[in-house]
Amino acid sequence: MYNQGTVEGAANLESGSRVFVYEVVGLRHNGEADKSNYPIRKSGSVFIRVPYNRMNQEMRRITRLGGKIVSIQSLNPLQPVHGNSTPVSANKEEKSSGTSTAQQQPETKNKQGNTMTQAKAKHADVPVNLYRPKDPFIGKCISNEALVGEGGIGIVQHLKFDLSGGNLHYVEGQSIGIIPPGVDKNGKPEKLRLYSIASTRHGDDVDDKTVSLCVRQLEYKHPETGETVYGVCSTYLCNLKPGDEVKITGPVGKEMLLPDDPEANVIMLATGTGIAPMRAYLWRMFQNAERTVNPDYEFKGFAWLLFGVPTTPNILYKEQLEQMQQTYPDNFRLTYAISREQKNPQGGRMYIQDRVAEHADELWQLIKQEKTHTYICGLRGMEDGIDAALSAAAAKEDITWSDYQKQLKKAGRWHVETY
């Protein structure tokens, strides 16, 4: 049993989550383990928070330390995700979807004395919680299309839902909740999962009547039993057929909103289905139909997407992305990090943090411009490598990246949504 406040305050547990809690015994009797600084101990047990992509690695590490896994639980998925569920504190959704607006921050100056203009607008007009779990909007699946090409890894689908007959509207960078049917292992109705919206405010059909998601089916081998486990909500979504009804809540979220300035610079760092909000941004910037219906927003800035995937067939929306780069070469730059096909300078796999390191000096010069916003979306493990690369670039100018990054966050120019 997990008490309130245990494991970063996540009180509710359910299957289908992207992050899991291992209850481990035996580590207290191992000298090396006692030095490992595990955060939670209770009645001789250690509770370890483990991302899905590190489950097998963590299991091996626990075994080396003399521990034994006695139970595995998944955390309550209430944070915006991109085909997978992510744990947060039990009141995260309420906090992130409140109606209060961000306050304008005063201008700050960096170490060199350059003003960092406050770019966080008061988003009073951003729609929030138009539909809640107790009274969700009933939408219908219009289409469900595969995004992974032949020879690719996993299942990723692009889903489009009909919003006709309701008042569910949103802006780029927000999320919606999906309530899967059925009950959980405790016999209670399934709770909602949040997914970042992959379409512009006008929808894929540019008629203000649809919303789209990019969803990866969660699938993994149970580290002890070897049994294949599938995510509850992601599997439900990936198997939807046109005409199927879907319970939708929201929208929520103000962290990943685009700046209103059409001359802003936008750096996008994404892995896998973290492309979802980036797709919404790019479609708003460069799709012809979108540009036609947005006379007050004609993007003239510079957008750079660095996109990490395991194989070429896993480059989601590849054809459209490359067409936009070809059509707008002065405004859009596209850089891939294909881990299982490309090598980094050390001869290892090429991950997005390696691409950031490769272009660190150029990215740093761009980030310093007051009109630049940076968006990071995908697996949480990418952040440390990105920070390391930018730290090295900033250090060349005697600037401490961690301090500068805090200024960017305060100015509303550094946006992160990882899981």
Briefly characterize the structure.
With 419 residues, this protein is an alpha+beta fold. It is 23% helix and 26% strand.
What would your notes on this structure say?
- The structure is a single chain.
- This protein is of the alpha+beta class and 419 residues long.
- The chain folds into three domains: 18-74, Allophycocyanin linker chain (domain) (Dna Ligase, domain 1), CATH 3.30.1490; 126-252, Translation factors (Elongation Factor Tu (Ef-tu), domain 3, Beta Barrel); 258-418, Nucleotide-binding domain of ferredoxin-NADP reductase (FNR) module (Rossmann fold).
- 23% of the residues lie in helices and 26% in strands.
- It contains twelve helices and 19 strands.
- The strands form five sheets. Strands 10-9-14-7-8-11 form a six-stranded antiparallel beta sheet.
- Helix 9 (352-358) packs parallel to helix 11 and helix 10 (360-367) crosses helix 11 (382-395).
- 41% of the residues are buried.
